[in-house]
Amino acid sequence: MTGWQWVTDEMFNGKMTSLASAIGTGRLLQIPGVYELVKEELNNTVLESLADEHGRCMDCGSLLDDANECHSCNDTDNQENI
Ligand SMILES: [Zn+2]
After folding, report:
1. Which of 5, 31, 64, 71 has its CA 20 to 30 A from that of 20?
2. Any idea of the CA torsion for 34, 38, 43, 44, to the nearest 10 degrees?
């Protein structure tokens, strides 16, 4: 480590960030352990985003009705509308 003392944390982080950007998300996710960490961090956001794109409830994933209501989440309120 003796020869690298001129490298500050700020320099290291700045260079690592720019190299990571250049490498790209796809390859970063292939680094052992990274995929699992990102998956854990973004799990709910991914599911909500997919639900939104597919016309499904962002809370439970069930298919929404024509009025964009979820019968699984609102089954006491909207029972008569089914
Ligand atoms: Zn729901």
Report:
1. 5
2. 170
Please give the distance, rounded to the nearest whole angstrom, from the Cα atom of residue 35 to the centre of ligand 1.
28
- For every residue of 33-78, DSSP letters joined together read THHHHHHHHHHHHHHHHHHHHTTB-TTT-PBP-TTS--TTTSTTTS
Ligand 1 center to 41 CA (angstroms): 22
Residue-wise pLDDT tens digits, 29-64: 999 999 999 999 999 999 999 999 999 999 999 999
The answer to whether 35 touches 29, Cβ cutoff 8 Å, is: yes
Task: Give residue 36 CA to ligand 1 midpoint distance, Å.
Answer: 26
Distance 72 CA to ligand 1 centre (A): 5
Task: Tell me if 41 sits within 8 A of 27, measured CB to CB.
Answer: no
